[in-house]
Amino acid sequence: MSLRLMLTLAACVLLAPACRRVEEAPKTTAWKRASGKTWLMHYMPWYETPEVRGRWGSHWTGHEKQHQPDRLNADNKPDIWSHYHPLIGLYDSTDPKVLECQLLQMKIAGIDGVVVDWYGIGKAADYPDIHQAARAMFDAAGRNAMTFSVCYEDRSAAYMEQLKLLKPDQVRGHLTETLQWMDKEWFRHPHYHRIGGRPLMLNFGPMHIKDASVWSAAFGSVPDRPMFFGLHHLWKSAGADGGFMWVNQSVWDGSPDETAIGQRLQMEYDHASTDPAKLMVSAYPGFRDVYQKPHPVLDHRGGATMGESLRVCMKGPWENVQFITWNDYGEGTMIEPTHEFGYTFLEVIQDERRKELGSSFPFSKDDLRLPARLLDFRRKNPSSATVADGIARMIHQGDASAARAELDRVSPATPQS
Asked: What is the pLDDT of residues 246-263, one digit of tens each?
């Protein structure tokens, strides 16, 4: 059972989201690329901690609360619902300090924006909490000169039907209301990600709303029709504009060499679409989940899987690449730095961006460590926000040397890297 499906089986939590209005993008000039493929990072906004929201969320504890993050396991790491542990510690997805760190790490690796996994505006399960965190990421993306878009989970409507919060004949109206909310709150903002001038909207499916006419009616209700991408094997039946790929463990069956891996991935991509404009390809580090009935494992192989999947994306004609994922700890696809892998995956990603852009790319592997140092400084020195903001601004402007020098001055001790 996938993590998404397990989420829909969680207990209903009818909590009203505490949402803020979006802040505009920073007024300082950020370093921007003039060329290269567009890289988007798939992001899970579903983590909660007692320090921020008064409780441990189920994606740290497990949906049956079978883990206790306050306790250490046999490896002296927090007992969480994952084989892996974030290097910055367990975090809350609404914490602006954490979001800044994560977005700066992505930026230094060459990522352009985030695709946030989102369950809509309904009041079932932990959807309000995920919605609150998605809005926090939207604000943070604007502040950190990154783009934002969503991958909508339409199966949320199915769960709302199970709870009698939504009748089957109300699904069409619910989808229309959701699109109108997105148009008002997100689509119109300058840092919302666009393809071909249209706001990008992914859908992990469609899994429940499969009638193309329902999607068409919802899109017709907003003035700025989204560029709609569904899963690679489902997008055509939904009348979407294109499809996006996901993890495929079978490509690596039998320990193929990189040439064979490229050929197998190319076949998968061609099956989804032979038109590069209608396909978003994917790169990923591996897969090892924590489910009772686990899916096949895709070994991370010390970063080799990440490099092989990404190089195929870079060699082909596809403009848009999605990285899977920043932080799905339940499925073991996390790219963000962990105690188990360190910065391996970000270093592989950054190497490929540097190969693509050459000397115009301003960041080094050592620079990837700066955001965690900045986060550590913010946590220990909450009254020094002005200093921290200045360091973040240096990174935005591509001046990592100045940021490092300032961090060395104000906080010589560095966290584990």
From this structure: 999 999 999 999 999 999
pLDDT band, very low/low/confident/very high, at 31 (cuts 50, 70, 90):
low
Q: Residue 16: how many CB atoms within 10 A of its CB?
A: 9
Per-residue tokens: 282: 């994917």
User: What is the average pLDDT score of the chain?
Assistant: 92
CA atoms lying within 13 Å on the CB side of residue 89: 15
Helices (H) and strands (E) in the chain, counts: 14, 9
Q: How many C-beta neighbours within 10 Å does residue 172 have? A: 17
Long-range contact pairs involving 289-297 (C-beta distance under 8 Å, separation at least 24)? 289/3, 289/330, 289/331, 289/332, 290/62, 290/81, 290/82, 290/83, 290/330, 290/332, 291/1, 291/2, 291/3, 291/6, 291/330, 292/1, 293/1, 295/2, 295/249, 295/331, 296/249, 296/250, 297/249
Instruction: Give the CB-side neighbour count of residue 10, counting CA atoms within 13 A.
Output: 27
Beta strands 198-203 and 194-195, pairing class: antiparallel
Please enumerate in sequence order all residues whose Cβ is within 8 A of that of 264, keeping only pairs 6 or more positions apart, or say none: 251, 256
Using CA atoms, how far apart are residues 206 and 230, in angstroms rounded to an integer? 7
pLDDT-derived band at 35 (thresholds 50, 70, 90) equals confident
SS3 call for 287: strand
Q: For residue range 100-147, what is the model confidence (pLDDT) as tens digits?
A: 999 999 999 999 999 999 999 999 999 999 999 999 999 999 999 999
Residue ranges per structural domain of the chain: 3-361, 363-417
Considering the segment(s) 3-361 as one domain, its CATH architecture is: Alpha-Beta Barrel (3.20)
**CA neighbor of 116 nearest in space, from 318, 276, 322:** 322
**pLDDT tens digit sequence for 67-96:** 999 999 999 999 999 999 999 999 999 999
Q: Which residues contact 56 (CB under 8 A, 6 or more apart)?
A: 48, 49, 50, 69, 70
Are 110 and 39 in contact by the 8 Å Cβ rule? The answer is: yes
213's CB contacts (< 8 A; 6+ apart) are none
What 3-state DSSP class applies to 295?
Answer: coil
**Does the model's pTM come out above 0.70?**
yes
147-152 and 194-195 as β-strands: parallel, antiparallel, unpaired? unpaired
Contact criterion met (CB below 8 Å) for 277 and 319: yes
